[in-house]
């Protein structure tokens, strides 16, 4: 059995907002294995960023524990094993990209070995063309790429990435995805929080769906995406969808589950709906997230 390199057990964290206390993370547990890429998804305000900060040891939990390679999150041993690329990273504005990476590389090596680390980080982030540009002049996309390159410096065993693949053009995003897959092939575990669900589908072997601070779905990606949906195009959509159906711009859709297309169409006929066309498709990750958010009480 593979060693767990990131273990988050029943962590909870609350914040005071106005006069009330809000529970941003509510009893969340998850484990990461070496070489695993796990997608952390959910709507805005679900608690994804707070969970990453708890796992990194940047925040202390009100309850529960987080360990990295067996060491308590935030300890020196844990920091040596973990790289964290936050959303909206900030770097010393007067330093160039290369100087910034060289500064952080000093904590891991010296001389020729340090230069090798910097070169590898520039390649991972696709930063060669801006290596001599000051970080103050970087676009959001380049800053995110620098955050990934810096987080991966020094042979990290775990990477926590918060919206690292956002604000990127498709070519760069694919290159970074390829780089993350190469890191995973070398045994690096990656927890990727992202609203870019297409990138999560491309990368993740397992997905955790967070809603209102709680894990509402957690499964291998193929399990989440094997459910079928029937799309129904209607001549005239009803004012109120039949039970179990959802309204769409073209008509209706319904999760088939263990049911059949024939049974779903029989419901349409019973409600005197004129069906023009139908299509069966597999659920997307967007469907899974929207379903999970819709099922959670507000």
Could you explain how this protein is built, in words?
The structure is a single chain. The protein is an alpha/beta fold and 298 residues long. Helix content is 33%, strand content 30%. The chain contains 10 helices and 14 strands. The strands form 3 sheets. Strands 6-7-8-3-9-10 form a 6-stranded mixed β-sheet, with helices on both faces. Strands 2-1-4-5 form a 4-stranded antiparallel β-sheet. The chain has a 4-stranded antiparallel β-sheet with strand order 12-13-11-14, with helices on one face. The protein is elongated and about 75 Å long.
The gist of it:
The chain is of the alpha/beta class. It has 10 helices and 14 strands.
- Order of strands, main sheet, comes to 6-7-8-3-9-10
Largest sheet entry: 6 strands, mixed
Number of helices: 10
Mean pLDDT: 92
SS content category: alpha/beta
Q: Runs with pLDDT <50, length 5+?
A: none
* Share in β-strands: 25-35%
Q: How many strand segments?
A: 14
Instruction: Note the gap between the termini.
Output: 39 Å
The residue fraction in helices comes out at 25-40%
SSE order, one letter for each helix or strand: EEEHEEHEHHHEHEHEEHEEEHEH
Coarse shape: elongated
Radius of gyration: 22 Å
Keywords:
298 residues, alpha/beta, 6-stranded mixed beta sheet, 4-stranded antiparallel beta sheet, 10 helices, elongated
List the helices and strands and how they pair.
Blueprint: E1 6-17, E2 20-32, E3 37-41, H1 48-56, E4 63-68, E5 71-72, H2 76-81, E6 82-85, H3 97-105, H4 111-125, H5 140-151, E7 158-162, H6 170-185, E8 189-193, H7 197-203, E9 206-211, E10 214-220, H8 221-224, E11 228-234, E12 245-248, E13 251-255, H9 261-270, E14 275-282, H10 285-295
Parallel strand pairs: 3-8, 3-9, 6-7, 7-8
Antiparallel strand pairs: 1-2, 1-4, 4-5, 9-10, 11-13, 11-14, 12-13
